[in-house]
What we know:
alpha+beta, D-amino Acid Aminotransferase, Chain A, domain 1, Dna Ligase, domain 1, 6 domains, nine-stranded antiparallel β-sheet, 20 helices, 40 strands
Amino acid sequence: MLASQWYRSLHTAIPTQSDASGDAPLFDKILVANRGEIACRVFRTAKRMGIKTVAVYSDADADALHVAMADEAVNIGPAPSNESYLLGDVVLEAARKTGAQAIHPGYGFLSENPQFAQDCEDAGIEFIGPGPDAMKVMGLKTPSMQVAQEAGVSTAPRYDGNVESVEHALELAPSIGFPIIMKASAGGGGKGMRVCWDMEELAEGFTLARDEAIASFNDDKMLMQHFVCPNNGRHVEIQVLGDKHGNYLALPERECSIQRRHQKVIEEAPSPIITPEMRAEMGAQAVALCKAVNYESAGTVEFLVDPDTLKWYFLEMNTRLQVEHPITEHITGIDLVEQMIRVAAGEELAIKQEEIEINGWAVESRVYAEDSVNYLPSIGTLATYIEPTASDPSAEWPDVRVDTGVVEGSEISVYYDPMICKLITYGEDRQTALDLMAKALDSYVIKGVDHNIPLLRDVIRQPRFVSGDIDTEFLKDVYPNKFEGYMLDSSEKDQLVSAAVLLHVRQQIDNANFAGLAQVPVIATEIVATIGEEPIAVTAGFDAADPTGDVVVTFPDGRALSIGAAWSPGQALFRGTTGNDEDVIVQFLGRSGTNMTLRFCGTVFEVAVRSKRDEELFAHMPEPVDDFDANAIATPMPGVCVNVNVQVGDEVSAGQTVAVIEAMKMQNNMHAPRAGVVKAVYAVSGQTLDADEVIIELEEEEADADDEAEAQ
């Protein structure tokens, strides 16, 4: 059974051409030059259209889901992407070998490589995407800005040429105006980008941005422009479709303002801020841009919107299918992958602009394998993996969609992007879609790697987010000191305590039954539930002879909460209902003695549940010993050492960057935990490192006089 399914919108939607015509397949066979969830996504539509599929895979992906889904699969090399997925000639050879007539590039890898698109054309294999000329022009920041301005698209003040040096940047600054953003001309994903607020920052920002551009893209050309909406800009994008007959469509916008490091985290469609008039004008500008470059296929025109003035400014055009395309599919009923395939085969768009309507609201959360507190990638095996749509077989989830490329047992490796899935929910309005997203996140069971569900869950309940008051600085503003976990309100705390007590009672009854006791077990009703360091004394009312009965939890102030659930020990997911008809979803992650590890509202809580007498005795237990080594600086995840910034004998200050480690295409700074002197350096540039491997050691701190006196 596949780990993910393609859910077509169930609301009123425009029929796709294949639904209406029943024509024979446009291609006999297509190859997807990608991996993971996007390869699986394309395969689902291709199979529905009756088209055979070919997967390509690296050594690391031999057992991947996308390989199992395809009709054929071809190994294209070792795990590193520059030795496999980025080798256009090898991918083309796989297409020739299998007889594939077309190649869909997905996103990333070769998707915006104009030379690969040209090579496909020269080889007589259809590239399911735009032509190489349009891709080349729109893939470069300066030419794309020039074309956009000439096409009548709103643009910001800028310098069109290459900014050649720091001196050149400083000379241009007065005519552009601060704040200024330096961008790598060939950049993307936030790399080679710096925002500068004055001349001093510009001098430093230019150097840093150019160095990063050279390292990431092997291209030192820099773009310089005025940074519009510096405090609260909103990232809004228009999905476009074009065919080979001069027909163009602008689909409703997507809001992509919830970002971290210029990477999108949560997207929604439509945008809460866009009016019908703005939508029509932005769409018209996006279509004008497509016409200017004879654009064919699906693409996205991105804008930055000033929420105060409602003016918008062109950012860039992505000449490929976007990660967040599913939310547009849900509110329009249009399968974008199908449209790309039909356009590549030479068909005209069968949909007219006036037929496109917005039906409901869709939200997408990007679920990543990462530490949501420190934003560090996490690798490992998905020891337990239960998607929301499979977590409760008795429930129907027609408006929840999971686009993924993993199953239970899949490996999240250091070689590729750590995305686990795209979780999409749909509703008749925004709040309905958000409520369903919360339920889906709570029901998503992932063990074996850290993940960012706690952060996603917290974002969608933040008052600012719920009200639609969002911008690209949202995460920085709401979590200035990093996200530290979900803060329970009083009602949620009552629910968690009650669920923990029910879990405890059920476990006690199960233990008694396992022991074969003939009589009804005697279970304490005076209970102390401790969340973190807060003990909460409650009284539990239950029938020990009924292993599935409700439990009534009475709190010290007399409040009582009844809770019931069809849960038994060993099950990963607890779905409870209170006497107030509130749903309570808790993941049971494990138990050690009286301590339970529970995930509630996305965040992991350690909850100890003991009888009142056990709690009194527990107070006399010795405190655990903290074995943290303040002298060792170790890697938090496997990766490659980019550079070491210190030598033996160097003095460092607390928080100083002492090394840079790269993992999953992200560079992470390693900081000194305290001030001190470097005693030893164990890593060198280019070295592959394991998790928790010590790379730098500091000399022991000298005890001060007070410490020595106390020790004596």
